[in-house]
Amino acid sequence: MSSSRLSPSAASPVSPAQNAAVCSDGLCANGLSCERDGRVLFAGLDFQLPAGTALQIEGANGAGKSTLIRTLIGSTSDYDGDILWGGKAFPRSLAAMRAELLYIGHHAGVRRGLSPLENLAWYGAAAGDAMAALDAVGLYGFEDTLCQQLSAGQNRRVALARLYLPAVPKLWILDEPLAALDVAGVESLEACMRGHLQRGGSVLLTSHQPVNIQPLVKVNLADFQPQERHWEAEYGA
After folding, report:
1. CA neighbours within 13 Å on the CB side: how many for 198?
2. Tell me: the pLDDT tens digits for 154-177?
3. What's the rounded Cα separation, in Å, for the pair 93 and 134?
4. In this structure, what are the phi and psi dihedrals at residue 119, rounded to the nearest 5 degrees?
5. Whole-angstrom Cα distance, residue 54 to residue 117?
6. Residues 150, 156: contact at Cβ < 8 Å?
7. Which residue blocks in the chain are alpha helix, DSSP H?
8. Tell me: the pLDDT tens digits for 200-220?
9. What is the rounded distance in angstroms from the CA atom of residue 228 to the CA atom of residue 192?
10. Whole-number average pLDDT of the chain
11. Which sign, positive or negative, has the C-alpha torsion 72, 174, 57, 23?
12. How confident is the model at residue 55 (pLDDT cuts 50, 70, 90)?
């Protein structure tokens, strides 16, 4: 990504060395800017996600939430600025971050030819732990049903069941985890995330709805859009 596309205001006032000192714990971004199809989605994004905290990314459809998620998990290197894990910048720290990462995308990402129990076993879960996790997401009795026979919402819960397993990675990056969940499912997932934070984990999530977890910091990508994107959002393209 060419930095010449970005406005001067997108440049970070903090040097990589200074940011590394501030971001010695957890995931951080400094002056992060991304574009898609030659169009800047957001510029100058800064955040810190130390242990025991949560960060909610907000923004309208097309604002760049999914692009940001893909960038943070290392699926694309087309960005300007710095992403740091444990005080070390990508790509040097990317492998270490992924070793501590549990990522669940907007799509379920389950193996449809396997059962829910077999999907969790593929991730190394013991049978008893997997059954407890499936029970927690309301899938008791469906553990041996092939995922291709389950509904989209049930497959989503198979994916989310990974969050209820013991010894989970400390960094969770979740793209719309509350989507397609009923009230009980939302409350259960919020309780699960609160427990993770209390154990020293961290959560970065996107969501169009309120999330009842603390401590929670919200970042709206609309605040980091170039002026022309603000104009289009208000008056139309």
Report:
1. 7
2. 999 999 999 999 999 999 999 999
3. 33
4. -60, -45
5. 29
6. no
7. 16-22, 65-72, 94-99, 116-122, 127-136, 152-160, 183-198, 227-235
8. 999 999 998 899 999 999 999
9. 40
10. 87
11. negative
12. very high
Tokens 């699960």 belong to 192
Contact 25, 50 (CB under 8 A): yes
Tokens of 16: 């990589």
The β-bridge partners of 175 are 206
Q: Where are the beta strands (DSSP E) in 6-53?
A: 27-36, 39-49
Contact 102, 57 (CB under 8 A): no
Question: For residues 5 and 190, what is the distance between their CA atoms, to the nearest angstrom?
Answer: 39
- What DSSP state is assigned to residue 151? -
The Cα–Cα gap between 129 and 151 comes to 23
Look up residue 161 and give its amino acid: A
Q: How is the beta sheet containing 54-58 ordered, strand by strand?
A: 101-104, 171-175, 202-206, 54-58, 216-220
Cβ proximity of 184 and 192 under 8 Å? no
